[in-house]
Specification:
Rossmann fold; N-(1-d-carboxylethyl)-l-norvaline Dehydrogenase, domain 2; 2 domains; six-stranded parallel beta sheet; 51% helix; binds nicotinamide-adenine-dinucleotide; binds D-Mannitol-1-phosphate
Length: 379
């Protein structure tokens, strides 16, 4: 049986990427640090993916197993030597931590076989696979790096499927939205995976996804949190917030249309489709999950700051994006490590300094001034 090794047996790992591989005839080895999930995968050898619809259609995902990357390093190296695909859905901040073990697996592999290995990071981050590749290369000697040519391929990708935190965390089963899209950047003909699309240039796809789905999601999460709402769909019952989401996505949309020559009307329909996906009440998707890790989300290349800086460069409006950034700065959820850290930073240094450190926005910039104005208004 063909082998896929997937790092991160969490919501998107089990609910999307792992499920696609299994449905395409692969055995999927999930690699994670969560022993409970690993043990259950090895005992049950299957789980269910349940669609968040009235009918709750269910698919059984077979041919799965698990390994712990902290305690079973040798076994992980062995599956890497035998795999066709190596994918991740672990969170952008974790990529540097798993890279040394992946490097050891690749090192072993390239001296054993010439069979190609395809490495794809499935994270909400522009160029995530390139970033993972850099971390892997930091752990390889020059000789091995040269040997990788023609044997190990690194492709960036964009992944889209809303998978909330699961209500029952003692079960492997995963509730997911029906919609999904996985776009991988390559011109090569690669082994077929049902549900994966390949494109020559990923930039328009990842930016359209990140700056519509994830920007819109972030606006709802941060405004919902500030208004005491628990979930994304409940937040959208507030018409004023729906209007705010639309106004923000109009700003990212104007940038995307200008940058990539998208059809304005088509893009408008895409925005409405995304907002309808957010309204799915079966998902019960918490604002604190969607708003998680605000320091990452305020990064210069991420869903809020990058479209604002790009809009400014293009002479387009960005005040609604500035409001979303201000709302993110007010996300003080105590159970989120980054939210706690961000609030401490704000207390110690003030907004302008934090934006310069976290978002790479100069303290005197027009964007920073606008964010500060919006911050005071929201506060
Ligand atoms: N959930 C979604 O709707 C969704 C959709 C598209 C993309 N994504 C992206 O997919 C990635 C994963 O998101 P998720 O929602 O599945 O998160 P998640 O928290 O459900 O899953 C992450 C998994 O990684 C594991 N993990 C954490 N640190 C680890 C380490 N050092 N070594 C091994 N395993 C480790 C965790 O135990 C967990 O099982 C993120 O980059 C996210 O942005 C998520
Ligand atoms: O995963 P994050 O933290 O980057 O973003 C939170 C959500 O916006 C995200 O997980 C979406 O549900 C997902 O990107 C939909 O495809």
């Amino acid at each position: 049986m063909k082998q896929a090794v997937h790092f991160g047996a969490g919501n998107i790992g089990r609910g999307f990427i792992g499920a696609l591989f299994s449905n395409s005839g692969y055995h999927v080895t999930f690699v994670d640090i969560a022993d409970q999930i690993i043990n259950q995968l090895n005992e049950q050898k299957s789980y269910q993916v349940i669609l968040a619809t009235d009918q709750q259609e269910t698919t059984t995902i077979n041919h799965v197993s698990g390994l712990n990357n902290m305690t079973q390093e040798q076994e992980v190296i062995e599956v890497i030597t035998n795999a066709t695909y190596l994918t991740t859905a672990i969170g952008p901040n974790i990529l540097p931590r798993i890279a040394p073990l992946i490097a050891r697996g690749i090192l072993e592999r390239v001296y054993q076989t010439d069979e190609p290995l395809y490495v794809i990071a499935c994270e909400n981050q522009i160029g995530a696979t390139n970033i993972l590749k850099e971390h892997i290369f930091d752990n390889l000697d020059e000789d091995t790096k040269e040997r990788l040519a023609g044997k190990v391929f690194f492709f960036n990708s964009a992944v889209d499927r809303i998978v909330p935190i699961q209500k029952n965390n003692t079960s492997l089963d995963v509730l997911v939205e029906p919609y999904y899209e996985w776009v991988v950047e390559t011109e090569a003909v690669i082994p077929h995976v049902e549900g994966m699309t390949t494109v020559k240039e990923l930039a328009p796809f990842i930016e359209r996804k990140l700056f519509t789905v994830n920007t819109g999601h972030a606006v709802i999460a941060y405004l919902g949190y500030l208004n005491g709402k628990s979930t994304i769909d409940k937040t959208l019952a507030d018409e004023a917030i729906v209007n705010q989401v639309e106004a923000t996505l109009k700003e990212t949309g104007d940038y995307l249309v200008k940058q990539y020559g998208l059809d304005k009307e088509e893009h408008g329909k895409y925005i409405q489709k995304i907002i309808d996906r957010f309204k799915n009440s079966h998902l019960n998707d918490g604002v604190t999950r969607v708003g998680r890790a605000p320091i990452r989300k305020l990064g210069p290349e991420d869903r809020l700051v990058r479209p604002a800086t790009e809009a400014q460069k293009a002479g387009l409006p960005y005040t609604n994006l500035a409001k979303a950034i201000a709302a993110a700065l007010l996300f003080d959820y105590q159970e989120d490590e980054e939210a706690v850290k961000l609030q401490t930073m704000i207390k110690e240094s003030g907004i302008a300094k934090v934006l310069s450190e976290v978002s790479n926005l100069p303290e005197e910039s027009e964007i920073t001034q606008e964010i500060m104005k919006q911050y005071d208004a929201l506060k």
